């Protein structure tokens, strides 16, 4: 019998935890592997919310988060800390996900230690290194050194081939976010109490159409965030609409939103929701305004139109299918596009179609099989 493969999965932020818990669960249930998990603690409360829901207990926690952390200090703490864990664990593979500083540092540390890297959600490209910033460059760097590139879609795989990735390293697996969404939806269906914390907001806004809002992109800090806040304020003046906005803990987001939106009758500014509550919000909302990567993938799966408050996206599949629209961060444009969806039933119906360009909910199993035979 061959020895079990040692897999070290590295997780830093909320979306990495959401997209990697299906992989970690599959590894843990499979005798072919010894699964170890290192959380960098790039996020704290927002990461811990997911770990708790998914029942994921890390073997290492680097606890690197600092308030309003600058990218250079964050990256160097991550590289040193993750390098130490890789040296101690001596895994056969390091698994990273997406494009965060943790994913980039985890991949680079593994490369320095000559451990092969599997990149979950490889090949996404906006084509502009200034947006998403710094994620576009992180993702390209990880793909350049990964021995296994798990592309969620054909578009992502094609981008890797264009960059001359080794064809043997590129596989289309689907995006594990759909696995995670299916899992959490089933959990909430079986135990509605898991998402009962939204009941107060639902009562408060009964009879109104709910617009779910999230935003946090670094390239939008300052003027972009202000413009988003003003757009939300203007939309909230409508009597038939209510805004439910779980605010990211980055202080560059919260300060702007609190200054512009606190106390408005039609706006609920909430702390970050745990995953069951956020899935419930996506379920009850009429439309979504977001700059989030993960939310751009989840909302189409639930048939919710998404207005993407960014100038570019590395996830063009929703736009191509007509269920997502890039609207940028201009106040007038955001208000005009949202108003069109609120007032024009046929425009709304054209976007409100459930479809799954990002995956079929079985990505984690494919990734685990790839790790088993690689
Ligand atoms: C990070 C990722 C981004 C990802 C996003 C998901 C990088 C460079 N950015 O952005 O790609 O889309 O996470 O949400 O990797 N904070 C808290 N508590 C938390 C989380 C954050 O207080 O649980 C605050 C801290 O002040 C922290 C700041 O937010 O310094 C920024 O966190 P950071 O992870 O550097 O960047 P994000 O904007 O969250
Ligand atoms: N999410 C959540 N609670 C919230 C907001 C978002 O659980 O209050 C989830 C959402 O369902 C998605 C992920 O967090 O799976 C997206 O994370 P984020 O927008 O922070 O990062 P990005 O995907 O842009 O990297």
Span of the ends, CA to CA: 17 Å
Element pattern in H and E: EHEHEHEHEHEHEHHEHEHEHEHEHEHHH
Helical segment count: 16
Helix amount:
40-55%
Ligand types: uridine-diphosphate-N-acetylglucosamine, uridine-5'-diphosphate
Explain the overall architecture.
With 374 residues, the protein is α/β, with parallel strands linked by helices. The chain is 47% helix and 16% strand. It contains 16 helices and 13 strands. It has helices at 14-28, 45-54, 71-89, 101-112, 135-145, 154-162, 176-190, 199-204, 223-235, 251-261, 275-284, 293-301, 317-321, 331-343, 345-351, 363-373; strands at residues 5-11, 33-39, 60-61, 93-97, 117-120, 148-151, 170-172, 209-214, 241-246, 267-270, 287-290, 306-308, 324-326. The strands form two sheets. A seven-stranded parallel beta sheet has the order 3-2-1-4-5-6-7, with helices on both faces. A six-stranded parallel beta sheet has the order 10-9-8-11-12-13, with helices on both faces. α1 runs parallel beside α2 (45-54) and α9 (223-235) packs parallel to α10. It is globular, with a radius of gyration of 20 Å. The mean pLDDT is 97.
Strand and helix layout:
Blueprint: E1 5-11, H1 14-28, E2 33-39, H2 45-54, E3 60-61, H3 71-89, E4 93-97, H4 101-112, E5 117-120, H5 135-145, E6 148-151, H6 154-162, E7 170-172, H7 176-190, H8 199-204, E8 209-214, H9 223-235, E9 241-246, H10 251-261, E10 267-270, H11 275-284, E11 287-290, H12 293-301, E12 306-308, H13 317-321, E13 324-326, H14 331-343, H15 345-351, H16 363-373
Bound molecules: uridine-diphosphate-N-acetylglucosamine (UD1) and uridine-5'-diphosphate (UDP).
